[in-house]
Design goal:
The chain has 379 residues and is an alpha/beta fold. The protein folds into two domains: 247 residues, TIM Barrel, CATH 3.20.20; 69 residues, no CATH class. The chain has a nine-stranded mixed sheet, with helices on both faces. It has a three-stranded antiparallel sheet with strand order 10-11-12, with no helix packed on it. Strands 13-15-14 form a three-stranded antiparallel sheet. Helix 1 runs parallel beside helix 2, helix 1 crosses helix 10 and helix 6 packs parallel to helix 8. The longest helix is centred in the first third of the chain and has 19 residues. The protein is globular. It binds iron/sulfur cluster. Iron/sulfur cluster binds next to loops.
Length: 379
């Protein structure tokens, strides 16, 4: 694969590490994660190996964000996480990095994480309501979250709290309690995701999309009143605390992902690793990359990806960036096709507020292949 990537590039990369282990499974989970930890040691050896393979391929590139997600990274021994961070540090050039790790609210070893150089936490509360938490088999209570958050704040200033709207047994009261928690702790960053409706059957529970939409609307407007800036469809931050790593995804910038099911985007090449643990281990142990998908985007594909990701951001995307990818793009024509959802403002193309309230399905419609062929003159 070495010839697929050029090695001279000065732009800093993001780095994602997937830890596919959780002590228990939540009923709505879509992520690749295993409750059997028997391959954990070999998995971490393979992660190290994969990081070194990337370093040999790309050279010592600059990294300015590291995100360790999963799964539940806080469910594995901190020493394993330490080895991964040391390996990234040895293999690349870390420049004042934002280093985020996802933690479950039953975790307590925050000082150890801080000593590793972690400077941002992401904690999954999901709902400040024990009835809801129990229904979706989260293994923490609201009290566990409060205790963990208070311990975490002694070590970390920059904490994100994740919420999911649309979970079973959620009531108006749940949303009120979510907001009380946010108001009490004022985390620097809040993510609010909507439970995907296709989960309904799997969870054998009825989801009411209208009720979910009302709850989501209340959360969004109250967060804004509390001083949180909505900077992406699902993400809110206090000033100066946007997630730098996730901004790389939304700006379609370059990042490496390592581990089972991880993906990356480097110099217009997009890849996704295999999502089956044993296959991942076999490939990496044989000194091969674990790609399930690898594709070199042409400029049209790069444009589609950039629009799809960047229009999730409230500030949208720089016109200049789109014109760099496809110089002939006619953005006036694109906006004329979706006058209620898209707007050109100063040097940017962005969604209107009405557009932001629609889901990814609207984005898919806007970024439909025929639409883009029309506004790029078939380029
Ligand atoms: S903690 Fe996250 S990754 Fe693990 S089972 Fe629950 S939702 Fe899935």
């Amino acid at each position: 694969m070495g010839r697929c990537f050029s090695v001279s590039h000065s732009e800093s990369l993001g780095f994602y590490v997937h830890i596919p282990f959780c002590k228990s499974r939540c009923s709505y989970c879509d992520f690749v994660s295993y409750t059997d930890f028997s391959d954990m040691e070999i998995y971490f050896n393979c992660l190290n190996k994969e990081i070194e393979m990337w370093s040999r391929l790309l050279g010592i590139r600059k990294i300015d964000t590291v995100y360790i997600g999963g799964g539940t990274p806080s469910d594995v021994p901190t020493v394993c996480l330490s080895k991964i961070l040391s390996c990234i540090e040895r293999s690349f050039c870390l420049i004042d990095p934002e280093i985020t790790i996802e933690v479950n609210p039953d975790f307590s070893g925050f000082a150890d994480l801080k000593n590793l150089g972690v400077n941002r936490l992401s904690m999954g509360l999901q709902a400040a309501d024990d009835v809801v938490l129990k229904a979706v088999r989260r293994r923490h209570s609201v009290f566990d979250f409060q205790r963990a958050y208070e311990r975490a704040s002694a070590c970390f200033d920059n904490v994100n709290v994740d919420f999911i709207v649309g979970l079973p047994y959620e009531s108006h009261e749940t949303i009120v309690k979510d907001l009380e928690i946010i108001e009490r702790y004022r985390p620097k960053h809040v993510s609010v995701y909507i439970l995907e409706v296709h989960k309904e059957k799997e969870m054998n529970l009825k989801i009411d999309p209208d009720r979910t939409a009302i709850h989501h609307e209340i959360l969004v407007s109250e967060l804004e009143k509390l001083g949180y800036e909505r900077y992406e469809i699902s993400n809110f931050s206090l000033p100066g605390y946007r997630c730098k790593h996730n901004l790389k995804y939304w700006n379609n910038d370059d990042y490496i992902g390592v581990g089972v099911s991880s993906g990356g985007h480097i110099e217009s090449k997009r890849y996704v690793n295999v999502s089956e643990l044993q296959r991942y281990l076999e490939l990496i142990e044989a000194n091969e990359f674990a790609f399930e998908f690898f594709h070199h985007n042409d400029s049209f594909e790069e444009l589609r990806e950039t629009l799809f990701m960047s229009l999730r951001l409230c500030e949208g995307v720089k016109i200049e960036k789109l014109k760099e990818i496809v110089p002939k793009i006619n953005l006036n024509e694109l906006v004329a096709m979706f006058p209620d959802q898209l707007v050109l403002e100063r040097d940017r193309l962005r969604m209107t507020e009405a557009g932001m309230d629609f889901s990814c399905s609207l984005l898919s419609e806007i970024i439909d292949k025929d639409t883009l062929l029309r506004v790029t003159g078939g380029e």
